[in-house]
Amino acid sequence: MHKVSGGEVAGILVAVFWAILVSFLAVALARLAQTLKATTKLVADVTDQAVPLLADASAAVRSAQTQIDRVDAIASDVQEVTSNASALSTTVASTFGGPLVKVAAFGYGVRRALSGRKDDTPDRAPRRTVIVGRTVPASRRVKRNLRGKKD
Fold first, then answer.
1. Cα torsion at 51, 53, 54, 60 (round to 10°)?
2. 144 within 8 A of 136, measured Cβ to Cβ
3. CA-to-CA distance for 21 and 96, rounded, in angstroms?
4. Cys-Cys with 93: which of 25, 32, 97, 116 at CB 3.0–4.6 Å?
5. CA 47 to CA 52: how far, in whole Å?
6. 48 to each of 58, 63, 131, 143, how far by Cα in Å?
7. DSSP state letter for 121
8. Rounded to 5 degrees, what angle do the CA atoms 118, 121, 123 make?
C-alpha cells in the first residue's frame, strides 16, 4: 500500500478547490449569458418600437411646421387688414368728421333760437366748481355759514 504524502493531500485539496471555483464561475457565466440574451432581446424590441415612433414624431413635427407657416400667413394678412382698416377710419374721420361737427353745432344753435326763452322761468344759479383737497378761504366760509342759518 502506498502512503499519501502531505504534498499529495495539498494537491488534491487545490484540485477540489479549483473544481469548485470553476463550477461557480461556469454558473455565473451561464447567468451572465442569459442576462445578455435578455438585454439583447429588450434592445431589439425597443428599437423595433422606437423606429415607428420616431417616424411618427418626425411627421408630427413636419405637420406642425406646416401649420405654423399657415398661421404666420394668416397673421400677416390680419395685420395688413388692420392697417387698411386704420387708414380707412382715419380717412373717414378726416373727411366727414369736421363737417358733421359743424352740422351738429348748427342744428343745436337753430334749436336754441327756435325754442326761445320763457320769461317766467328764473335763471339758474351758476354751478359751483368743487376742487377736492382745497379749503375755502375764511371770508367765504363765514358767508356760507350765515346763508345756512337764515332758514
1. 150
2. yes
3. 106
4. 97
5. 9
6. 16, 24, 82, 99
7. S
8. 105
What is the dihedral sign for C-alpha 70, 71, 76, 80?
Answer: positive
For residue 133, the SS3 value is: coil
* C-alpha separations of 66 from 75, 84, 133 in Å: 14, 27, 62
Model pLDDT, residue 122: 56
Q: What is the residue type of 129?
A: T
Residue 104 CB-half CA count within 13 A:
6
Which grid cell sits at 4?
499519501
How many CA atoms lie within 13 Å of 5's alpha carbon, on the beta-carbon side?
3
Interval 42-72: pLDDT, tens = 999 999 999 889 999 999 999 999 999 999 9
- C-alpha cell read off for 148: 345756512
State whether the Cα torsion 21-22-26-32 is positive or negative: positive
